């Protein structure tokens, strides 16, 4: 735009200022036509954003040259602007794609975690069924015995009722009743009933707690983190794994005093379950599994050690890789440790292993109370 400074109505400075204030016209090059000796005017021109001056009287070649240069600058500017617009759009598109892919990945990972958890329960099902069946067995047998006892008690009560009240003072009738009482083992029955009731209640409690642990373990993880007592988590996981452990191993617990940890407790249970099942599977016939917890420098540590086969050096390098397993097909998918590692990483912690072939292994999980990215 070639602008005279002196114009009717609105002068050149004002037009220039309008153009430069509006984002749509800001980049139109403006050339003010002034007299050579009007320095104050030129300063004012610079103030309102003019791109160049041409002095009167004009030299047309100068006008042509300056205009061409300015138009070239403008074209470059437009080119760069268009380019960055396209780039921005591409970046936005790519970001959207990446965000979508990330969300999908997260959901797949969540599904994988859940599948692996259910697979573990699948592996343990026979054991868990046995754990539940055992108390159900003695509860059923107790109930049958109680039924017989009820019969006997009713019969004795009938005999008592048939004895007229006046005869109670009769030593012969009284002796007869005493005889019957002995014969029917009424005293023993009364004592046994309370014992059996206690045992039955215990069995019911055991089933209740197994079912609760199982429900807790198989539940899809809550989206929110919770404060949890890690010793308690271990205890309920040990309950579910009990049958897997009890025949071959002696389990020792050595719990230290721990503060509550903000975490996803189901996921950590899954880690503990993997370590316990691995420990049990590493033991051939008889061995020991020790679960230890302790607090050190605001880090909760959990170790699961076994006196099993141990892990040779060349195997140890691969145990945290997905699908790496040395177990026969059907027994292991090789996902346990890789998923555990991922879960622990998400909790800002780490997992370490030490092992001596032939002697046993020890897996240690460290979970910091405070972590750099607590929302993960
Ligand atoms: N306590 C341990 N003692 C000896 N070897 C172990 C122990 N824990 C893990 N390993 C080795 O690490 C491998 C990988 O373990 P991981 O838990 O990831 O998979 P898995 O137990 O084979 O299968 P999954 O856990 O999916 O059922 C095992 O196959 C085994 O060779
Ligand atoms: Mg495993």
Question: Characteristics of this structure?
Answer:
single chain; five-stranded mixed sheet; Rossmann fold; binds adenosine-5'-triphosphate; 376 residues; alpha/beta; binds magnesium ion; 9 helices
Could you list the spans in which at least 5 consecutive residues all have pLDDT below 50?
Answer: none
Main sheet characteristics = 5 strands, mixed
What is the CATH first-level class name of the domain at 223-376? Answer: Alpha Beta
Question: What average pLDDT do the residues reach?
Answer: 90
- What gyration radius follows from the Cα positions, in whole Å? 43 Å
* Strand order in the largest sheet: 5-7-8-10-9
Overall shape: elongated
Describe this structure in a few short sentences.
Helices cover 58% and strands 16% of the residues. With 376 residues, it is an alpha/beta fold. 19% of the residues are buried.
SSE map:
Blueprint: E1 2-4, H1 12-21, E2 31-35, H2 39-48, E3 52-56, H3 60-162, H4 171-183, H5 186-218, E4 226-228, H6 230-246, E5 249-255, E6 261-263, H7 265-282, E7 287-296, E8 299-306, H8 313-316, H9 336-346, E9 350-356, E10 360-368
Parallel strand pairs: 1-2, 2-3, 5-7
Antiparallel strand pairs: 4-6, 7-8, 8-10, 9-10
Residues 274, 277-278, 332, 336 line the site of magnesium ion (MG).
